[in-house]
Design brief:
The structure holds 2 protein chains of 2 kinds.
Chain A: H1 4-7, E1 21-22, E2 30-36, E3 42-49, H2 51-63, E4 74-79, E5 82-87, E6 94-98, E7 102-105, E8 108-117, E9 129-135, H3 140-154, H4 164-173, E10 177-179, E11 181-184, E12 187-193, H5 196-208
Antiparallel strand pairs in A: 1-2, 2-3, 2-11, 3-8, 4-5, 6-8, 7-8, 9-12, 10-12
Chain B: H1 6-11, H2 22-30, E1 32-34, E2 41-45, H3 52-62, E3 66-72, H4 75-84, E4 87-90, E5 96-98, E6 103-108, H5 133-141, E7 145-156, H6 162-171, E8 172-179, E9 187-194, H7 202-216, E10 234-236, E11 246-248, H8 253-263, H9 270-274, H10 290-298, E12 303-307, E13 314-333, E14 339-357, E15 368-372, E16 381-383, E17 399-402, H11 404-411, H12 417-424, H13 433-444, E18 455-462, E19 467-475, H14 477-480, E20 482-487
Parallel strand pairs in B: 1-10, 2-3, 2-6, 3-4, 6-7, 17-20
Antiparallel strand pairs in B: 5-11, 7-9, 8-9, 12-13, 13-14, 14-15, 14-16, 16-17, 18-19, 19-20
Helix pairs in contact in B: 2-3, 6-7
């Protein structure tokens, strides 16, 4: 089932305590969630640290290839004993959200920041792509419902709600819906990349075979 | 005494960990009292162990008014201490940042021993004599006391060498030294009041140095800490200023995870930040007319099956409108015979309605029917400035816009380029002299390459018909930059 990633619970974690992963390149930063695409490109990263260390992260991933000494093209985490690289990819497509500064924590002043691909919050209707992220343990039906509403949003072809059970497997078969990898943390998701000509062809075929009908029941839908 | 864990404490007495014995703590408590009983007092034990000693001090001084702070390196002990005090860091003391002169009471029972070469806290070591851990901890801790704050310092008497004695006598007045009740570790308890050097009584200082030296050399024995304190108690002052810093430098994953469990960060707002904002369809307040339906359909607000009783067709429709740029290019021949290429991009909103033909028997069943149209051009057009020589311009003209009226004139053959060029070069045309002077001032007053005041030119195109055009350039902030608009006076 394509939703498993989003609802999977992180292993080796008690429900109260998150497992923190130190960023090897900037050890003063700790991460509690990381999601990547199939090429290990960064989709979502949740970082805690002091302002100075976070500024260092922003600037170093922005420099990336441009600065051989300080630029970071990838971030390294040790995940269950294995060194794992997360590639920054196209830094221009990344954006961030930050909390206010938490003062007087056990580590001084701390900030919490999410760095993520813009497609997570802004579906690209022109290119029919979107990234759907969910946090925590979401019931599969709730996920599927949300996922479907995003598909309807980015698909220029008319879609009816009762077509969902026919269309979603179609997207998976044609690789228009890919699971994202959760390296750690309680965030998961899928990336949607709709191929409209292919979808139009497949759906037309389903309509001709009366698998997609005007009404949920199996009559023809013709009223007059 | 509400918090006594003598047996627990005794179990921990190993591996260089020497908790202060219970009778000694009890007798220390007899020697101290709160100066202002109803005011906040801040106390600290930078080598807290299980936190028993500092917790008892907190109780003694009036628990509700006391903020107790502790630092402990051992994780299990720190876990225990954190249940007894208000703020506990599990950290090497040398890896902490704690504000100076912020605590009214300091309980210091440091680890004892020679420092290993290369000990990582050695950057704080100011000792010129024997490198001892207790000296390092003393140097790191005593500045935390506010002036008038009370020190309780416990060390083996044979470590009270000249250097440590001198430090104590330079930083504290009203010093007293006693033997701890438990004789096992040859400990002495030193009490004192942190005092500015200028306020020290030199005679007292000299006397105490002598006492410390005699005890260190074994010539004299400190008397046991008295069961009934015979003097006025040491008064622990209240702490009025806020504590600025109390944190550890190195990030510890497990400790941070606990801290995050309290802070939570952005997590509670995940859906708010990361879910697409989707509008929930609402029923219209009134029966929609045809044009309502057309608008809503082309805006993508309504979709679904429709039936035509006339043709017998069933369609499933969905509408959407997107913006397209329509390109318009032309070559212009200048007076000197050179040619410039002008590319004009016009925004067009294009509604597209797509429909599945669901009609049984229809040759188009399962095919998409697309209905689209092209609206009139928008009144404002983007003009690309490819054909303009920008280097001679006095200010950036930025994006060039023209109004509908100007567009009509351009369609009739008006060439804007010479006017825009004159405008950019500071030839303000046929406007009032005072306006032109104002323009000159605005150009002179440019900072960081942008205008703070707008500049405006007026050009007479056709004197007979009183046809004039205005060209206005304005700075619209960092995002939009400069915008130059060509317009008719009547369109202002």
């Amino acid at each position: 089932m394509y939703t498993t990633n989003a609802v999977r619970k992180e292993e080796n974690t008690t429900s109260l305590e998150k497992h923190m992963h130190r960023l090897e390149e900037i050890p003063d930063l700790m991460c509690d969630a990381c999601v990547v695409d199939k090429y290990n490109n960064l989709v979502f990263l949740s970082v805690w640290g002091r302002d100075t260390a976070l500024q260092e992260l922003y600037s170093r991933i922005t420099l990336a290839k441009k600065d051989k000494e300080f630029g970071l093209e990838y971030l390294t985490f040790k995940i269950q004993g294995v060194r794992t690289r997360v590639y920054v990819g196209n830094v221009k497509e990344l954006t961030k959200r930050s909390t206010r500064t938490y003062k007087q924590t056990k580590f001084g002043t701390l900030l919490h920041t999410w760095i993520f691909d813009k497609s997570c919050i802004k579906p690209d209707k022109a290119n029919h792509t979107a990234t759907v992220l969910l946090e925590g343990e979401i019931p599969i039906e709730e996920f599927a419902q949300y996922h479907w509403s995003v598909i309807k949003d980015i698909c220029p072809l008319p879609l009816l709600d009762h077509w969902r059970s026919e269309i979603t497997p179609l997207l998976i078969d044609h690789k228009m819906c890919e699971d994202l990898k959760t390296f750690f943390g309680q965030v998961g998701g899928v990336r949607l990349i709709l191929d409209i000509p292919k979808l139009e062809e497949s759906m037309g075929d389903l309509i001709l075979r009366d698998r997609l009908t005007t009404y949920p029941t199996h009559h023809t839908g013709l009223q007059h | 005494m509400a918090l006594i864990f003598p047996r627990v404490a005794a179990n921990f007495a190993r591996n260089g960990y020497y908790p202060t014995d219970e009778p000694t703590i009890e007798r220390i408590l007899n020697a101290i009292a709160a100066k202002d009983p109803n005011q906040r007092i801040r106390i600290i034990d930078p080598t807290a162990g299980e936190g028993v000693a500092i917790a008892e001090v907190a109780h003694h001084l009036g628990r509700e008014n006391v903020e107790a702070y502790a630092v402990e390196y051992n994780r299990e002990r720190a876990d225990h201490a954190s249940t007894l005090v208000d703020h506990c860091l599990r950290s090497d003391l040398m890896d902490t940042v704690i504000s100076n002169t912020s605590f009214g009471f300091l309980f210091l029972n440091p680890p004892y021993g020679d420092m290993a070469p290369g000990y990582n806290g050695a950057i704080y070591d100011q000792s010129k004599g024997r490198k001892r851990l207790e000296k390092l901890f003393y140097q790191k801790s005593f500045p935390m006391l506010q002036y008038g704050g009370i020190l309780t310092f416990i060390i083996p008497y044979n470590q009270l060498d000249d250097e440590l004695s001198t430090w104590l006598c330079n930083h504290f007045s009203q010093l007293r030294i006693y033997e701890a009740v438990d004789k096992q570790f040859k400990q002495v308890v030193i009490l004192g009041v942190r005092t500015k050097k200028s306020d020290l009584d030199l005679a007292d200082r000299k006397k105490m140095l002598g006492v410390f030296k005699a005890i260190y050399l074994g010539e004299m024995k400190a008397e046991e800490l008295p069961q009934d304190w015979p003097y006025e108690p040491y008064l622990v002052p209240s702490s009025k200023a806020e504590l600025q810093n109390f944190y550890q430098i190195t990030m510890d994953p497990a400790e941070l995870a606990r801290e995050i469990a309290n802070l939570k960060g952005l997590w509670p707002e995940f859906n708010l930040h990361m879910k697409y904002k989707q509008s929930v369809p609402r029923a219209p307040v009134t029966k929609p007319r045809d044009w309502h339906i057309a608008m809503a359909l082309s805006a993508g607000e309504i979709s679904g099956p429709i039936h035509s009783s006339e043709t017998g067709q069933t369609l499933i429709v969905k509408g959407d409108t997107h913006k397209e740029k329509v390109e318009h290019t032309e070559w212009k021949t200048e007076q000197d015979g050179s040619k410039t290429f002008i590319r004009t991009l016009i925004d067009k909103f294009v509604p597209v309605i797509k429909a599945w033909d669901m009609t049984d028997g229809s040759p188009y069943k399962g095919k998409i029917i697309t209905i689209t149209t092209v609206k009139d051009p928008e009144p404002e057009q983007n003009v690309n400035n490819d054909g303009v020589d920008l280097s001679s311009f006095l200010f950036p003209i930025g994006r060039l816009l023209m109004t509908r009226g100007i567009d009509d004139l351009v369609q009739q053959g008006l060439d804007l380029l010479p006017y825009v060029t004159r405008h950019g070069q500071g030839d303000w045309g046929d406007g009032y002299e005072s306006d032109n002077k104002q323009n000159d001032r605005a150009v002179k007053a440019m900072v960081d390459g942008h205008l703070y005041e707008r500049v405006m030119s007026v050009y007479i195109i056709d004197p007979e018909n009183d046809l004039k055009i205005w060209i206005i350039t304005e700075w619209h902030g960092d995002d939009d930059g400069h915008i130059t608009t060509v317009l008719l006076p009547s369109e202002y």
